[in-house]
Amino acid sequence: MTVAEANRIFNEADLLVTGAEVEVAIDRMAQEISGRLKGSCPVLLCVMNGGLIFTGQLLTRLVFPLEVDYVHATRYGHKKNGSNLHWTVRPQLNLQGRTVLLLDDILDEGVTLAAIADYCRQQGAAQVLMAALVEKLHLRKVTPGMRADFSGIEVGDRFLFGYGLDYKGYWRNAPGIYAVQET
To answer: Which residues, at least 6 apart from 24, have a Cβ–Cβ distance to it below 8 Å?
Structure first.
């Protein structure tokens, strides 16, 4: 993708959620997570690369003991869709008997998050919860009715970017949640 193409995608995109609205959603999620996990000393696992911005924003709002690690598993790479899960980095912390909170940019079909959650359970996690900044509302979930335990923003079924979500590797840094103009 050229710089001109990337700029065209951004300039033609629909702004669905402003940066200020994202911040309010993260504040609300932090309160919900704190209320549920503050006594458990959980392991928070950032799902890279998409979960990076959301995790960084959320962590400073959680004022209780926790440990942070990350995983890098993806189905997309720089494509708009993907199939097989590819592990680049698995968690380094011991998950045995721990509460694990997965932090990701989006819960779309849920294939990646479900596979990471299964891996954590296989490693002995006592409980695995999911937090997604954005949750797409559609019926194509890997498990019917799948939902994040903590969800920031619900949107329709469009291709999104911004606040960690990318378009072909670009625009994770966009200051809101944008939808690619439908063609």
So the answer is: none
